[in-house]
Design brief:
The chain has 302 residues and is an all-alpha fold. The protein is built from 15 helices and no strands. 73% of the residues lie in helices and 0% in strands. The longest helix has 40 residues, at 17-56. Residues 295-302 have low confidence and may be disordered.
């Protein structure tokens, strides 16, 4: 019998200069396309904020008489003083209301979302998949579609035109529950909870001693989303509240915007108030950025 011989693998042909040029041109084209899209995306997000800063430094005449991205007669501090002094300082009241609503929704609403996501991931109970399907349906429903039903429910319980009409709805965030379940599955090994049960820890103690600290990056992320969502919420307080002392800054500035049509001097106030209203959001992201980054890094090495 003849011994079978193994065929020697063929060597790949050496790249020709033409192929090298094609590879370089293709890589350059893809890199240029990605960078161009990133630049367009950054410009789309940053340019309105830059315009807002330029516009807040102008008086009424310069606002309509100068270029969009040009400084006029310096009036920033004058505009800020006008905003803070309007109607006895009602703008500061609106800012305080927004801070209270957003902080309440971020801290307590975020915690409820984390607990619900943890329960959906680690516990077994009847109807678990069906309930989680309802949560996913809630993610798909826009918030504006739920404003009227929530107003009718608030009317039944007699809490319209009170802070509870804003605080109770922000306790439930379907997207936060979904995100918390993802974090729970990625960050909390089942073996860790099993070891805690062997040591005598119950479900509540296991969550607060092990689950919550391990999910802290997810909690911070959900809290940031909640803070931004509640701060920018417009339809719910517009429908629920009539007392100007309870309004958040988003609705209060819209009232000034209505005044700006017959009284143009309100226009610099609207613009300056809008600039001041985004400062808490920037501070929240800057202060919590390191927690968010640590969570992303931990997820990548796992």
């Amino acid at each position: 019998m003849s011994t079978p011989t193994l065929s020697r693998p063929r060597a790949l042909p050496a790249p020709t200069p033409k192929r090298r040029r094609d590879a370089r041109s293709g890589g350059f084209a893809s890199t240029f396309t990605v960078n161009a899209l990133l630049i367009l995306g950054c410009a789309y997000m940053v340019l309105p904020v830059v315009w807002l800063f330029f516009a807040a430094t102008k008086n009424t005449a310069d606002l309509y008489g100068t270029a969009a991205y040009a400084f006029g007669q310096p009036s920033l501090f004058e505009n800020i003083g006008t905003v803070l002094g309007q109607d006895g300082g009602v703008f500061l009241r609106w800012m305080a209301n927004s801070m209270f609503y957003a902080a309440f929704g971020a801290v307590l609403g975020g915690l409820i979302s984390v607990m619900a996501g943890y329960a959906f991931d680690k516990f077994q109970f009847r109807g678990k998949d069906s309930f989680f399907g309802i949560v996913l349906v809630g993610v798909l429903i826009p918030n504006t579609a739920t404003v009227l039903p929530m107003y009718l429910l608030a009317s039944v319980f007699g809490i319209t035109n009170t802070i509870w009409a804003i605080l109770v709805p922000v306790l439930c965030n379907p997207f936060g529950v979904y995100l918390a379940r993802v974090y729970s599955a990625a960050y909390i090994p089942a073996e860790t909870l099993e070891a805690a049960r062997v040591d005598g820890a119950g479900p509540i103690r296991s969550f607060f001693s092990l689950g919550l600290p391990m999910m802290m990056p997810g909690y911070i992320t959900i809290a940031l989303f909640q803070f931004v969502g509640v701060w920018n919420n417009f339809m719910l307080p517009l429908v629920m509240l009539q007392d100007q002392q309870l309004l958040p800054v988003s609705v209060g500035i819209s009232i000034w915007q209505g005044y700006a049509v017959p009284q143009p001097e309100f226009t610099p106030m609207v613009i300056t108030g809008s600039l001041l209203s985004i400062i808490p959001l920037l501070l929240a992201f800057v202060m919590l950025q390191r927690f968010w980054k640590s969570g992303l890094t931990a997820g990548s090495v796992k």
